[in-house]
Structures are given as C-alpha cells and as structure tokens.
Amino acid sequence: MPSGTIIKALSGFYYVKSEAGIVRCRGRGVFRKQNISPLVGDYVEYSAEKDSEGYITAISERKNELIRPPIANVDQAILVFSAKDPDLHTTLLDRFLVVIESKKIKPILVVTKMDLLTPKEKEMIDEYISVYRSIGYKTIPLSSKTGMGLEQIKSIFDGKVSVFAGQSGVGKSTLINALRPDLQLKTSTISKHLGRGKHTTRHVELLEISKGLVADTPGFSAIDFFGMEPTELSFYFPEIRDQMSGCKFRNCLHVSEPKCAVKEAVETEQIQAFRYQHYLMFLKEIQERKQRYEK
Ligand SMILES: Nc1nc2c(ncn2[C@@H]2O[C@H](COP(=O)(O)OP(=O)(O)O)[C@@H](O)[C@H]2O)c(=O)[nH]1
Ligand SMILES: [Mg+2]
Ligand SMILES: [Zn+2]
C-alpha cells in the first residue's frame, strides 16, 4: 500500500505527500473508534482510488506529538533568536532549550539580524555563540537581509520535520521567506500595517524547504516546566549532565550541597556562570510550583 507524510489537514481532508505526489485523502471511521485522529506530520498508509484521491488506512506510531501547533513526529526545533532588536534573550533561550531537551527533540540555534551589530556588539554575540557551540548545540548566525548564513542553514532541513520557535519579532517569517521566496509569509512590518499581528492561525501546514519539511507556524508557545521534577532539570543542561557524576550525593541538586562537581565546574569556568544562574532560577520555579500544587 502506498505511504507518505500528512503535510496539511483542512476541512476534513488530509493531504499526503508521497512519491506519487500529493494525494488528497479522507480519514476513516476506524480512527475515531481508536480515539486517534490523523495529525499533520503523521506517516500514513493510504489506499488510492484515483491518482490524486484516496483514504488513509493506517497511521504509524508517533515518535512525539506537539499540541501547539498540532503536529506529530517532529525531528528538530529551530530556535530563532535575534542578536539585536530585540536583544539576545539568553534566559528565554535556555528555557526553550530545557523544554525541547525534555521532549527529546533536537534543538538547533539560529541567531538572526547579525547585520545590525556594531563590531563591539558582534564580539559579545560571538562569545555567546561559542558558549552554546561548546555545549554541543549547532548554532548558526545569519542575516536574512544580507544573506549571510543562509547557505549553511539550508542543509539542516534535509530529510527532517522541523518546527521553528522563538518570540515574535526575531525574524522567523523573514527567514522562511528568504529560504522560500515564493511563499511570501507575512512579516511583522506588513501585519502592523494591517493593524494587528495576524499570526494566530490554528491551521498548520508542512512546507518543503530544501529536502525537508518545516511547519509554517511557530511551536512551543507555552514554555513552562509543567510536570518536571527538580532532579530532572540537570539532565536538560548538557554541560551539567556531563559533570554531575562527580557530585558526592547521588541526588545532588547542585545548590548548596558539599562536594558538588557542578559548582566546582562553575568556579573553574568549565560551566558558564550565566547558564548555572539560569539552572538555579528554573530549579526554584520547579520547586515552588511543586509546593503550590502538590502539597
Ligand atoms: N536587519 C534585519 N532585520 C530583520 C532580519 N530578519 C528579520 N528582520 C526584521 O525584523 C522584523 C520582524 O521579522 P518577522 O519575520 O516578522 O519576525 P517573526 O515575528 O519572528 O516572524 C521585521 O521588520 C523584519 O524585516 C535580519 O536578518 N536583519
Ligand atoms: Mg512571523
Ligand atoms: Zn552537584
């Protein structure tokens, strides 16, 4: 039976991209009984009555599933942050990284608007970029205005389903437009002109960029640490995870425990102080939430 990926769901139809092209499929009642409905990103089998029409017969088991936007089988999240305007927001960046790590999705960092930096500002941003690279995150500085970095980013989409994430105004739509000029997604200057930001569409579609699929709507708008245990947090900071086996206490939270290898690594600057500060900040948040809701 032919198979493919659902790239769009609209008005009761699922658009499946397969080797045969795009086939418009209906779901079948059987899914409703099983209490699952096909999602964009699902890998499905279908039965085609005509070349361009058919119905879905089976949904492959999902690797993961996002709620907002509703999409299955996400391989990687492209975290878009601007170097300036708005300023690089490392607290928010680390927050995104923790949530994405916890969902076992691979993060890739993109730093936009590099063209806006003075040489002095560029030095500082380059330093942050090298910190994140040293932790092991692929980090791509770019400018959608000058085209710098665009060739490099094209190759990361190949064979993967990606979702963009990042606060509004950092240049996500502008970047997608630079990669696929034919799409003409609305950017904020245009929406301001129309009176209000129109980025709240519920409907999601996977766009082809290079040899991959990319969600046209940003994901991870809710970035709290819901359901996370205090002891889990260390695992979502790779450089802390690397050190913690050296801590004296097995359940060390790296706050004020004696013989803590993580705190020692902060002192010797193997772990960056700002990353450790964010760890402490998030830990406190998780502990306070637990106290509030779980007593
Ligand atoms: N100078 C410069 N401006 C950019 C760049 N990327 C986006 N912008 C501007 O930043 C603003 C917000 O961009 P937009 O793509 O709408 O951000 P989004 O909310 O993340 O989708 C727009 O005015 C863009 O023209 C860039 O690389 N360089
Ligand atoms: Mg946008
Ligand atoms: Zn410790």
From TrEMBL:
Keywords: Cytoplasm, GTP-binding, Hydrolase, Metal-binding, Nucleotide-binding, Ribosome biogenesis, RNA-binding, rRNA-binding, Zinc. One of its GO terms (molecular function) is GTPase activity. It is found in: Cytoplasm. It comes from the Bacteria. It is an enzyme of class 3 (hydrolase). InterPro entries: G_CP_dom, NA-bd_OB-fold, P-loop_NTPase, Ribosome_biogen_GTPase_RsgA, RsgA_GTPase_dom, RsgA_N. Its cofactor is Zn(2+). Its main location: cytoplasm. Its EC number is 3.6.1.-. GO terms for biological process: ribosomal small subunit biogenesis. Binds 1 zinc ion per subunit. One of its GO terms (cellular component) is cytoplasm. GTP binds at T112, K113, M114, D115, G166, Q167, S168, G169, V170, G171, K172, S173, T174. Zn(2+) binds at C247, C252, H254, C260. Residues 72-221 form the EngC GTPase domain. Residues 63-223 form the CP-type G domain. PANTHER family: SMALL RIBOSOMAL SUBUNIT BIOGENESIS GTPASE RSGA, SMALL RIBOSOMAL SUBUNIT BIOGENESIS GTPASE RSGA 1, MITOCHONDRIAL-RELATED. Belongs to the TRAFAC class YlqF/YawG GTPase family. RsgA subfamily. One of several proteins that assist in the late maturation steps of the functional core of the 30S ribosomal subunit. Helps release RbfA from mature subunits. May play a role in the assembly of ribosomal proteins into the subunit. Circularly permuted GTPase that catalyzes slow GTP hydrolysis, GTPase activity is stimulated by the 30S ribosomal subunit. Monomer. Associates with 30S ribosomal subunit, binds 16S rRNA. This is Small ribosomal subunit biogenesis GTPase RsgA. It comes from Fervidibacillus halotolerans. The lineage of its organism: Bacteria, Bacillati, Bacillota, Bacilli, Bacillales. The gene is rsgA.
